[in-house]
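Dear Dr. H.,

I hope your travels went smoothly. While you were away I took the liberty of generating a structure for the chain from your last submission, since the lab meeting agenda had it listed for discussion. I wanted you to have the full record in hand beforehand rather than looking at slides cold. The sequence, exactly as received, is reproduced here:
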Amino acid sequence: MTWQHCKRSFAYTYIDWAHEPFLHKAHDLLANPAVGPVLYWRMHMEAVIQDGESWHATTWRTIPEYQGGFILDGGVHWAAMLRTVLPKYCKPASIIAVKSLHRSHILPHDTLVGLVHPDPSATSEPTGLPTTIKADIEAKDMPVEPGKSTPHGSFILSWAAPDTPQSGRCPNELYVVAEHGTLRILNKGAKWDVTLTPTDKSGLEAVHVEGPATGVEQELIDFGAAVEAAIHGHKDDKPNLADPALALWDLSFIEAALNSDGQKVEIEKK
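The corresponding predicted structure, in token form, is as follows:
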């Protein structure tokens, strides 16, 4: 197999998302103070898995003794997306989730639905000025205590989707709502599509970038640079995106969701 064949194959399998330049571009867009704090986010991924197809006929995905099957195999890359794109203050800290098996040939589970909580320190007072509308009751006199702003997130990871036309499916995406705009990251297999849509009064410019997935190539470039720096005794100042502890966090995210069964589970800190 030639390198070109390997490159196309790897790029299509959701590998090495922590190295994807488009995801780092999305992170930088959210990091702009003018965008404001993240309010909430949602992640959605669904795939069609036919019995016996090449994606299905692999032992590490179909042996029931393995806890996660497709969810573990594919879900870790979406977890890597979250830790790469979301600001540190709203990084997932705990999960409440439920798991299901909808298609009998995709053992042991094919779907996760969950709610993600950040660290309590991410909670803040609501933004903006108090309303100018005359109210019959003040906030302090309300029968329920007014809420605070916490950047919660929700997710669906499923390999149980029906084989409908692509136009009838929900896109595979991470959608982030911030105070002054929204960020949408679409995964289109071997391509990425990133869009920042600001509010009219934010002063921000809209951004739309798209292109091929190149995470594997970037990881190999970073690895080569690190090896060369070590050989010549130079210090490599670039962040180590291949740190095993980061990959373990991705695994901890999916395992916490699989183990939740509707109860709150802390994600192991790495």
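Two observations you may find useful: DSSP finds six helices and nine strands in the chain. The radius of gyration is 21 Å.

With kind regards,
E. W.
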